[in-house]
Amino acid sequence: MIELRHLRCFVAVAEELSFRRAAERVHVDQSPLSRTIRDLESDLGVLLFARTPRTLRLTPAGETLLQEVRELFIRLEGAKRRARETDARYRAPLRLGIADGLAQPRLLECLARWRHVAPHTPLEITDMRAPDLADALRGEELDVGISFGVAHEEAIVQEPAWSYAAAALLHVEHELASRATLTISEVSAYPMIAYHPKHKPGLRRQLDEIVQRHTASPTLAGQASSLTGLMNQVGAGIGVGLIDVGHLDVFCRANLIVVPLRDDPASITTYLLHKRPRAQLPIALERFFTHAKSMN
């Protein structure tokens, strides 16, 4: 049976036209190399080399075999390269970090549909705090993050994925609860529950920007470290809050009511984050970003 080692030895002898030089090239002794070539000729049933005491040259059969084997090795190396690229691209999981307690319908749909979009690229999902997300991306412990945003830094790229309208979150007995719509100015006239900047930096920044377009000094009645924490404080009647309507489809409370805002624009954005690459983004990561943005 002809093996690749036979063909590699043949190519070395054919290109060097010297058993001594070919033996040095493939790191074997000259006698085993000569025996390998004789075995190859015996298996093929042809002479590959015309031998004289002082010269060695290829026969026509040897010339043909050399051309074919060179093309075979090129195809073999191409197949090995493509197999490695496919394994790296599709078999390694995409490491995804989700911060801010996100549970929006678009996020859930994004994750569910990814199995159909890229069935060979599984997701490895980690829930974490927003401040830890940037550290994990920077340290290459994650490939991509999903969050309301983190503090700006050059090492981390933050791209908008989708947005939900902002709405007022009120206790059902609050005096504004009977209104069909509200403005930010009307909501911020009452004590508000804000997100803690240490725990929800992106969400706090976005909501501060919305409120500060309408009032310079809102009254803060408390701070929440999570979406459920916000609901608990509003439900306890401590103050009013702002929330993205996406989470209202997931978190429903009988003692809370949501009133749409008629300010334009008043929306909350969810971001895709990744470490700034030195070159082009990996194909799997680009594909996930394109898929996630299609949810908007």
Write a structural description.
44% of the residues lie in helices and 21% in strands. The chain has 296 residues and is of the alpha/beta class. The protein folds into two domains: 4-89, Winged helix-like DNA-binding domain superfamily/Winged helix DNA-binding domain (Arc Repressor Mutant, subunit A, Orthogonal Bundle); 94-296, D-Maltodextrin-Binding Protein, domain 2, CATH 3.40.190. Strands 3, 4, 5, 6, 9, 10 and 11 form a seven-stranded mixed sheet that branches. A two-stranded antiparallel ribbon has the order 1-2. Strands 7-8 form a two-stranded parallel ribbon. Strand 3 (94-98), helix 5 (105-117) and strand 4 (123-127) form a beta-alpha-beta unit. Helix 1 packs across helix 3 (30-44) and helix 1 (4-16) packs across helix 4. It is rod-shaped and about 110 Å long. The two termini are 59 Å apart. The relative contact order is 0.14. The model has no long low-confidence stretch (mean pLDDT 90).
List keywords for this structure.
alpha/beta, Arc Repressor Mutant, subunit A, D-Maltodextrin-Binding Protein, domain 2, seven-stranded mixed β-sheet, two-stranded antiparallel sheet, rod-shaped
> Main β-sheet: number of strands, strand sense, barrel status?
7 strands, mixed
- Taking pLDDT < 50 over at least 5 consecutive residues as the criterion, the unreliable ranges are none
- The rough form would be described as rod-shaped
Name the CATH class of the largest domain: Alpha Beta
In total, the number of domains comes to: 2
- Which band does the percent of strand residues land in? 15-25%
What would the CATH topology of the largest domain be? Answer: D-Maltodextrin-Binding Protein, domain 2
